[in-house]
Amino acid sequence: MSFDLEDLRRTAPLLLLSAAGLVLLLLEAFSRVRLIGRHYHKKLPPETSEAYAVPLAGSRTYLMPLTVLFLAAALGLVVWLWPEAAEPHYLYRRMLVLDRFGLLLSGVCITAAAIGALGAPAYLREQRMEFGEYYALLLLSLAGMVMLVSAADLVSLLLGVETMSLGAYVLTGSWRRSPRSSEAAMKYFLMGAFVSAILLYGIALIYGSTGTTELAEVRAHLSEMRSAPVFYLGMFFLLAGLAFKIAAVPFHMWAPDVYEGAPTPVTGFMMAAVKTAAFGGLIRLCVGGLTSGRVPEVSTGPTGWVNVLFVLSALSMTLGNLAALRQENIKRLLAYSSIAHAGYLLVGVVALGVVGDAARAPLIYYLLGYAVTVVGAMAVVAALAMGPGQERLPIEQWAGLGQRHPAMALAMTLFLLSLGGFPPTAGFFGKFYLFRAALQNPSLLLLVLLAIVNSLVSVYYYLRIVTAMYFRTPQEEEVEGHVPAAQGALRLAVLLAALLVLGLGVWPGWAATVAEAAKLAG
Amino acid sequence: MLPLSYFNYYLALGAVLFAIGAVGVIARRNALIALMSVELMLNAANLTLVVFARAQHDMRGQAVAFLTIAVAAAEAAVGLAIVVGVFRNRRSTQLDDLTMMKH
Amino acid sequence: MTVDYAPTLVALLFGLGFSCLFMALAVLFGPKRGGETKLSPFECGSDPIGSPRVRFSVKFYQVAILFLIFDIEAAFLYPWASQFRRLSCIGPMAGLSCLGTVTLFGFVEMLVFLGTLGVALAYVWRKRAIGWG
Questions:
Q1: What is the residue range of B34's domain?
Q2: Nearest CA in chain A to B31
Q3: How many domains does chain B have?
Q4: Chain A, nearest residue to B39 by Cα
Q5: A143 vs chain B: nearest CA distance in angstroms?
Q6: Can you name the residues that pair with C93 across neighbouring β-strands?
Q7: How large is the ipTM?
Q8: The whole model's pTM is what?
């Protein structure tokens, strides 16, 4: 049995994240709890419900910096492995692969998680839901994502999805005193587990029809599959499973409720990192396992995955945008916008199947831009919470923020413009590159036109928030004496995200070059 | 090697179990029963994997089944914890009661 | 071939013999004081006669689910054990003996696995999730 110790070195980010998760779990369990309840107790407004008036249990303030340190180290390892990954290396008997595509998407997930983690303690403390497992779960979920985006086998794909999701389920329900949070966790979990079973059954069917679970082998065996109906059923099941994780219509039912009910930093983490990783897995599956020049009908045939994703893409962006138009709750609005963005991103995956590798770099750029934008937007929502259990969610409460919190309003405007696709932000160039790449094949003209119309429609609801912040006067006075929890770290998170969004928009060249270099193995 | 038709019975059993589980998740309104149905689906998929592995004289499917058992256990643990969390907040495990967030 | 199974047979006989011996000793010399408390069901909690649809404390569920997880992880020891020699050998194998270099790899691998489980156990222990306290 040949086992290369080099494999360990080449999966250093994954190993570091897993080990760091375990270390944080132990620290959480064995460190002394410092009581700081009274300090925050004074700030409670009188009408706060009894449930929130419980003195805060404890705080381990070093957990967040330690987490960010681990994440920075993981990012460092990603950079360290970058030169070596120019050529793909298959690891652990071809279960995982080290290539630049996987590394870059790992980097995106880690960055999004780091920005989210920076902002988390202030929010968690304000909402009295501090619990140390938060960071451990974050890191373990992230380890699952890294595994998912470097999967070279359907088995590691499944394990990555599971590790990522199990962490996300618990994080969603981590606000234990909030019925909304536990309700969201329940919905997410039940549907997620249902989809995991579908994913596994899909893997079983693919295994049965091609005789292997390894993506490259699946591709090689496409021409000699034993039973085409079994294979296509398996493929549809796999696509449905991953479509659920990226929240594409019609597998999106969970997303609005889960994104609304989850604690805000967790929502940001899920919108950015879970979506990026799931797209990474989808691209690995479709391009690495289901695209073969010898058997083109698997990808571009009438029942090929390109057509399936084409339909999902059109449905996601249209229905997501239409539903977002009616939303009054900002988290719900961004949830539907996230469904619409899954639709735009699917245009990129469809383009990967039709025009080939030229669509890869734009797709990666879009993912990067979208991830930093939503993480930033959610950090602003977290920063503007008005006290325990009182988040600033209805859009009318955003009126007049331009005067009251000018910096936060400015940052939010930037993120919303990026989501709407205005220059000079990451969102604009993301859409521009992506649609331009897709237009290389005229058969995608209709889809791209639909995407452009949808982007224009979406501008309406993004700008509604901006106009509320700058051109409307607040209806009622805010609770006097309450200072938003925006401490240094949360402000830093917003600033970092804003700088990245602007930087990607003003100098899109460097990110495009990096994305161009991020080649897929195989 | 046994004829493939022999395996078809097992594959059909797997498919039927999977369908029963899927209907259970969609139709039953109790969270715990939905959870059990998910476990049934996972086990049906496992059975299918093992049958294919045996039919192809390949150990890979059985190794995957092994991993799936661990995944299913982890899912059951997390799922039950979430059900308990919901029950603590609202004294019910009926899925129809989960209507806090409707637009 | 028969010789290979002889130690197993001896161990079996020893086990049977000792258990019979101790049971016989207990019957012969042990004090016998019956009573209602001693005859009532114990260990697994509930009365064996009655409706099965009684509510259990959530503590049962907690211990059960933790047991389930650790129990299933233990199942991974079997495939590892069957491949242990192969995992620890660099080079060709002849039957079960390694012709190349023997390394600690298989051993360390399992230590890492058990260490991860150990972390989980330590966490559970520290959080007082096991036990009735």
A1: 4-102
A2: A190
A3: 1
A4: A197
A5: 16
A6: C98
A7: 0.94
A8: 0.89
